[in-house]
Structures are given as structure tokens and as C-alpha cells.
Amino acid sequence: MRASAVHRVSTLAAGIGLTLSAAVSFATPASAAAITCKESGGELYVTATSAPVRTAYYETGRVVDTVHRGDRLNFTMSCKNSKGNLWYLVDKTYGVNKGWIYSGNAARI
């Protein structure tokens, strides 16, 4: 950022009672939160009527399969994404395409 732009931003921030650092922090997106993953395995069963299995541990991941209530799944990893949502990486053990399922759609056995 050019010096003149920094001066304008700091003047504006001071005018509304903010410090420059507060103005910059405010602009930081929520997606900057940490992503945590654990390599742990186990089994799940689907609790939702139907649930998508996705390519990524976000709702925006492409759907690669759909599972249904009562289906059994094997998972090899779990991740909490930047939004704080827990997802499980399921494999092909029970004939499901490999991908991620949201923990709100399944329960551990």
C-alpha cells in the first residue's frame, strides 16, 4: 500500500475511533482460522436420510457419492475445517466412493 493510502486509511480509522491495526484486523477473513486433522480410523453409520460424500471437507466440495440412513462407513481421518465443522474421510471399504462426510450426517460406532 502506498504511503498516501496508508495515511488516508489511518486518518479515516482515527476519525471513527479505530486504530490502524484494528482496521486491518477487522479486514482479516474468518477463513484464516486453523484447520486441524487427525489420522484416526473407525466406523460410522449415517444418521441423515441421505448425505453427500464430497471431494473436500467443505460444503462446496463436489459430491462424489450419496449415502443413506443406516449405511455403514469406514473412516481413516477426521478434520475440523476453518469454520469449525468436523468432517470424516471415508474410504471404499463398504463400496462408497472415497470422500468427506460431514459429522452432522453420521455418528461413530
Structure explained in plain terms:
With 109 residues, this protein is α+β, with helices and mostly antiparallel strands. The chain has two domains: 1-32, no CATH class; 34-108, SH3 type barrels (Roll), CATH 2.30.30. It contains two helices and eight strands. It has helices at residues 3-15, 20-26, and strands at 36-38, 42-46, 50-54, 63-68, 72-80, 86-90, 99-102, 106-108. Strands 1, 2, 5, 6, 7 and 8 form a six-stranded antiparallel sheet that branches. The radius of gyration is 21 Å and the shape is globular. The termini are far apart.
What are the SSEs and their pairings?
Blueprint: H1 3-15, H2 20-26, E1 36-38, E2 42-46, E3 50-54, E4 63-68, E5 72-80, E6 86-90, E7 99-102, E8 106-108
Antiparallel strand pairs: 1-5, 2-5, 2-8, 3-4, 5-6, 6-7
Please sum up the structure shown.
The protein has 109 residues and is an alpha+beta fold.
Helix content: 10-25%
Looking at how many chains there are and whether they match, the oligomeric state comes to: single chain
Number of helices: 2
Low-confidence runs of at least 5 consecutive residues: 1-30
As for the number of domains, it is 2
| Count of β-strands | 8
Highest-level CATH class of the largest domain: Mainly Beta
- Mean model confidence by pLDDT: 80
CATH topology of the largest domain: SH3 type barrels
* Estimated radius of gyration: 21 Å
